[in-house]
Amino acid sequence: MISLKNVSKRYGRIHFGLNDVSFQIYPGEFVFLTGPSGAGKSTLLKLLCRITAPSKGKIYLNGRVASLLEVGTGFTPELTGRDNIYLNGAILGMPKAVTEKKINDIIEFSDCTEFIDTPVKRYSSGMKIRLGFAVAAHLDNEITIMDEVLAVGDAAFQQKCIDKMNEISRDDGRTILYVSHMLYTVRDLCTRCIVLDHGKIIYDGEVDDAIRVYLQKSGTGVLNYSFDGLPRIYKSKGIQRGAVIHSLNFPNEERLIFKKDKPIEIDVKWESLGELNNAHFIISVRYLNGDAIGSVISESINISRAGEYDTKLKLAFSGLKKGSYYFNIAIGEEGTLSTLVHDFPNVNISFDIEEPDNNVEWRHNRFGHLVLDEAEIIETRLLK
User: Fold this and answer.
1) pLDDT at 363
2) Same domain, yes or no, for 212 and 228?
3) Which of 296, 315, 328, 378 is the most buried (most CB within 10 A)?
C-alpha cells in the first residue's frame, strides 16, 4: 500500500494525497483511472513515474515506462520539433538508432510535418501535445502512462490517439494507464476502471459499474435537484418574479448518459405567482468549459391562477455529438420585444451523450450554435 501525505506547518494538519492505495495491473491491460477533481489521480501517476516518492509503501514496475503527464513535458522551446523528438525519445529511454528508424512515422502521426523544423516555442499547445503523444506512442516500452493529454487536441486528433492506444494495447500487448474525465471513450478502450476519491480507491473493476460510481461522486449522476434556497441570477430590481422553479428530476433514468436518438423526460415542479401568458421553459446547453451550444424552448404555458404545478418535459439531444455537457433550466414569459425570465436557478446539470451524430445543423440566430428540438409538454397539473 502506498501513501503520500502533505503536512501543513501553518495549521498543523496532515493531508493525504493518497491513502493506502494498493492495486495490481497485469501485462496487456488497458486501465482507465478516473475520479472527481482532487481525488489523487495525477499524484498517483507521478508516483508511478518516479517523479515523486511515496511517504509510505513500495511501487513495483516490471518493464520500461513511457509517460505523458502534461503538455510539452521534456521539450526545449529553443529546439525544433525534430530535435525535440530525439531529446524526448532519449528522456523516455529510446536509443537514438530507434528514434532514427521511427522518426518519419512520429512526424506523420503528429500532423506537424510542415512545422517540424520550427522551434517548439512557436508551437501551439495542441501541436506540442500531438508531438509529445506521437513520441510516446511509438516507443518500445511495456507500460504507457498518460494524464488527460487528449483534452488539448482537437476532435479528429483525439480519435486518432484513441485508435492508436487501442492498437498498441490490443496488438502489441502493452499496458496502458490512462487518466481522463472523458467517460464516453471508456467502453471502447478499457478492460478495467479504477475510481479514486479523496486519495482512496473506491472502485476497481467493470467499466459500467465504475462509471456509475464516478457519476455518483462527481454529481453527473444526480437524478434529483432541489432549487429551493439557492441564490438566483435573475433578481431584477423593480421586476417581480412571476414563477419559481422548485425542483427537477429525471423519473425514467438511472444515470445521465443519454443516447442521441432516445428522448428523455424531465419532471419540473414549479410555482406560478399569478397569471402567466405564453410562458415556457428554457434549457440552455453548454460545453463543460461554459461555451454555448444551444437552447431548448418548451411549448407555451398559459396559467390563469397562482399555484404549484408539475410539468413533464420530453426532449432529445439529437443534435449533439458524443461527449460531456451541462444544461441550465429557466422559466420565462415571452413578450413583444423580448423574453422576461422569471426564474433561473444557477445550477449546472451535467450529462453525457453516448453516440455520435455527424448531421449537425449550424445556425447562429439563437442561443449558441445549434437549434435543438422543441421540448414537448406532456401535461401540467395543479398540485394545490
Assistant:
1) 45
2) no
3) 296
